[in-house]
Fold this sequence. Notes:
By secondary structure, the chain is an alpha/beta fold. The chain is 54% helix and 11% strand.
Amino acid sequence: MAFLEDFKIALLSKTQLESFIDERLDEIYDYYSLSNYEVIIEDKLFFRTLPTYHSISELNFTKPKNETFLNLLLATAVRLNEPFSFGYFSGILTRENLEKSKIIEASTIFMNCRNATELINSYNELLNLLEESFLTQSDGQKEPLTILLNYYATAIVHFSEFNGGRLAEIRSLLVESFENKTKTFLQDSVFEEALDLSINFEDDPYNKLQVLVDTYLERGEVLAPFIQGYILETGTAYSDVIGANNYDMSEIWGLNRELYNNLLHTDSIFRSLGRGTAVLTTEDQLITYMSQLGKMHFAKLRDAFEGLPNDLEKIHLFDWGCGQAPAAKMFIDRFSREKIKSVTLIEPSQAALKRAALHVSKDTQIIRTINKDFDSLIDEDVVLKKNFGDITVHIFSNVIDMDFFQLHRLIELLKRNSTGLTYYVLVSPLISIAKTQRLDTFVEEISDDVTNELLLVENKSSGTWDRNWSKIIRVFKTEQ
């Protein structure tokens, strides 16, 4: 793989590494975030090559890209159970007075433990930090839950062969937390599956746990049964109501609030949404997501659309990871359906995509539904026939910051197929320096080599904006 060879060379020199991070951070991010354990453990790169540590230590950490790179290294050191590497990189964070997230603080607890007693005694502190991360910093439960599984993996790798009794004690702590629902982020079937694994050394529990985590995080190649062609929700009570009216987004939200109030077992349904990151499959999930998580998205989108000119027309609208199309619907409400020439909806969830098409079915005659994840997209999915004066608007609502697709591949897809005047609207929660840099890398790479203008930049942390919400907004345009 050319990327890995180039990366290994760059790691030997601080100057080369600075340039490599600056030019190819999207590929670095994808490699560490999306590669499964088998790939990461095979390469290891610098984790066992001490000369590279000096190059990393000498980076200029006033640059957000370099700080993001350091956070990626810390996360990978946890995955590989490399306490020396973790301690070294964590030391750089301290030396440079860089932000330490709750996830890093939690990881430090068990990466620094020297024996089973320390692991056991630090368990409650670890749980509290992970719960705080889930409630205030993470965009879902996957990140804190994965860190807890890494804690369990650390115990397994150190004690399964020669100290099975202490490992059984640690497993009992985890079982008790799960059964008593001690923390909200724990309620996920993958945690139960992890606890069901045999901890006998002969059964290879460590590697089996790594495979389970990779599957949970959808690392490596994932094949999905996507539907080809146009799909639309029909023949349901919901479609009958929507089809008989010209609802705007506010009215759709109100309808879903009424339906939500009639649902049973709403707590378990809400948890299944993964804080808005799960692929939805059921009617109850669709209703719960729209009614409970909708308002936060609406507020961010309303603010983001203020960064666009008011006189947009002849618009080809793309809604990426559209869900039920609240972003597309709000855009159409804001700029009027008469100015929309086409809508393209891209979404891996069949249930959500069908409902998305239903929500915009009366707003334009040309609707394209693309039932794929981003890594499965090809040029033909994003190419449109455009006339002189037509513009394209791409909306990425709570998408770019998520680690479920190759960012550099998406950027190349867009750059190959963008023509004329194009506007980009990106909104996400403000979570961490690495997530923010992912959005900024997207803006930088898309804008490279074309005429561009940054129209709106906003970063608001929790507690500084509406309610306790946070937001990142990037609105920009390109022309070629």
